[in-house]
Amino acid sequence: MDLLHDDAIADLPKVEYAGPASKDPLSFRWYDPDRLVEGRPMHEHLPFAACFWHVMRNTLGDPFGRGTALVPWDDGTDSLDNAERRARVFFALLQRLGIRWYCFHDHDVAPEGDSVASQRAAMEHMTGVLDDLQTQTGIGLLWGTACLFAHPRYAHGAATSPDVQVFAHGAGQVRRAIDATQALGGRGYVFWGGREGYSTLLNTDVARERAQYARLLHLAIEHADTTGFEGTFYIEPKPREPSLHQYDSDVEATLNFLREFGLEDRISLNIETNHATLAGKSMGHELRMAAAAGMLGSIDANMGDAHAGWDTDRFPTDLYLTTDIMLVLLEHGGLETGGLNFDAKRRRESMEPIDLLHAHIAGMDTFARGLLVAAAIREDGRLSDFMHDRYASWESDLGQGIMAGTVSLRDLESQAAQSEPTPRSGRQEMLEAIVNDILLSAT
Ligand code: XLS
Ligand code: NI
Ligand code: NI
After folding, report:
1. Average pLDDT estimate for 418-423
2. Which fold has domain 16-379?
3. Nearest 5°: CA angle at 367, between 364 and 369?
4. In a mutational test of the pocket of ligand 1, which residue from 236, 269, 286 has the highest number of ligand atoms less than 8 Å from its CB?
5. pLDDT tens digits for 104-123?
6. pLDDT at residue number 1
7. Is 238 touching ligand 1 by the criterion CB < 6 Å?
8. Is the pTM above the cut of 0.90?
9. Share of the chain above pLDDT 70, in %
10. Could you tell me where in the chain the CATH 3.20.20.150 domains are found?
11. Which residues lie closer than 8 Å to 67 by C-beta, 6 or more apart?
12. I want to staple 188 with a disulfide (CB 3.0 to 4.6 A). Which of 92, 101, 219, 232 is the partner?
């Protein structure tokens, strides 16, 4: 496919695989899309997506200063022309990087306008523009979502607002965003409830608010069933920020919420690394909890900072992290409709357009390398053999009887009287050293 022509980024090259010896920072050293790993091409193991919000709409501002991002293509207005230009530059950037998927919020791509009618018109117009760009480039929509947290009307939440008129606005936006996602052949739709939580319990009825949130999710499913939208619905857990507490605070709390309200068969999880960090959990923990429940849907592939209490959304450059994520994904057989969405932003100091290439290259190469290490760990077999041996006693008649429910407490007491268990080491340090050895030698 020819590269999209766009003068605004004409000087940015197409990034190609050049191998680990390459010193060219605008090449991939590890991401070699067609290389087979465990019999499948890398790009299938690594369904990378870029997000419209951080790439095109994040000015790199912070609470202490204005944005620093240099965006020569953007005239700063809310016009449809500007929106179209941004969309073109976005697709041209993805093509430079060989990224095959993208994600957006409604208001990232379509001007918000000042009425429901103007929002609908803008969204429909931009859906046409995005559709053309998808056809021209072969890039597909991983998931869409509605921004239910930026507008002042959502100060108290959207679904969980105390004002039913606000709920109506949020629901309308969700309808338009699902319809746009469907029109663009999106593989999924995400709910991230940034303000679906509270600032103080002094004014909050948590039972009512959780039920309202669940009602919005049911309404979305009912809508999808009438329009024939077949994408996967995901909910994206996050404990706090911007609210003090959000009801979908981590994977296990979200699973409980979905089950409590009968949503578990229709909604799975989109798990973000930085949100795990904020919840005081590792990404590996969150992914394994979701996988164990059959609810591992998609991943927001960024990275947090252990020292910062907020969502720093860094590009993932930690090899231990990507190795662990890829171990889970290889064991799980991949993500069905999900992907690895870089919900990540450049540092405020990395303001040049070319930094968008450097940032994604770093993330893609770190994931590609993590995939290779994870595959090498599996081929080596020492970790899985150890795990298998560790539970071996459960294969005995006794173990099988306990799990089949044919053994009583009385039986177990007599069994215990017969012998003492022998202490056995978990060998954590030995296992960590094995991971280090493989991590430094896998190619
Ligand atoms: C914010 C969330 C958000 C979702 C999409 O912390 O990660 O970006 O992914 O609304
Ligand atoms: Ni996210
Ligand atoms: Ni986030």
Report:
1. 95
2. TIM Barrel (3.20.20)
3. 110
4. 236
5. 999 999 999 999 999 999 99
6. 56
7. yes
8. yes
9. 100
10. 16-379
11. 58, 59, 60, 61
12. 232
